[in-house]
Amino acid sequence: QQQVKQSPQSLIVQKGGIPIINCAYENTAFDYFPWYQQFPGKGPALLIAIRPDVSEKKEGRFTISFNKSAKQFSLHIMDSQPGDSATYFCAANGYSSASKIIFGSGTRLSIRP
Amino acid sequence: DVKVTQSSRYLVKRTGEKVFLECVQDMDHENMFWYRQDPGLGLRLIYFSYDVKMKEKGDIPEGYSVSREKKERFSLILESASTNQTSMYLCASSMTTNEKLFFGSGTQLSVL
After folding, report:
1. How far apart are CA A109 and CA B112, in angstroms?
2. CB-nearest partner of A46 from B41, B97, B101
3. CA dist B60 → B47, B64, B85 (Å)
4. Set of chain B residues whose Cβ sits within 8 Å of the Cβ of A94
5. Which of A4, A68, A73, B79 could form a disulfide with A104 if both were Cys (CB 3.0 to 4.6 A apart)?
6. Model confidence over A84-97: pLDDT tens digits?
7. With contact defined as beta carbons under 8 Å apart, do A57 and A50 qualify?
8. Torsions phi, psi for B88 (to 5 deg)
9. How wide is the angle at C-alpha B101 spanned by C-alphas B97 and B103, nearest 5°?
10. What is the pLDDT of residues A69-80, one digit of tens each?
């Protein structure tokens, strides 16, 4: 019940395409769903996050879509660029403790020029 | 911006050695974390600390211990390094629970 399942494991998209990364969770107590972006040789950095009171959040070219009833959320990258090539992690946690943040297994995204 | 600094980018140690990984944050954050990153397994929490001298086990604490003597510094200790502890280790901090994590750049540890 504590898992966050992320897919796909890797993804290759042409420049300008819209990569979509999906995550699913089981624990209905989760109420914070962040996405982290990690470039080679760097630690992950928060990209965008959503709380379950909204179904969509946009920040620039990045959009989270959230389906509370299906317990799924996804990251869309509009007009993808080679500089978006990175590993993306979804995560989920409940309000009570940051120690309970659960990360997905990661998606290695490559944007071809 | 918050800076989380890990003392070493790469480390090579021998089996059985005691290994210290150091992490310092400069924004007075209450919470500090140690994660391990392995391909296909995501980020797994080893230990975290919510206050000086306080610590809690994460999902994979076996073979590790931690120390937090000062608010800004959180150390991960491998008491007797083993080859299955070869991994990328990431330190993180956050101001409060349920908020943004700030990560260091990681330490790639190889145990031979």
Report:
1. 31
2. B101
3. 8, 9, 11
4. 98
5. A4
6. 999 999 999 876 55
7. yes
8. -95, 130
9. 145
10. 999 999 999 999
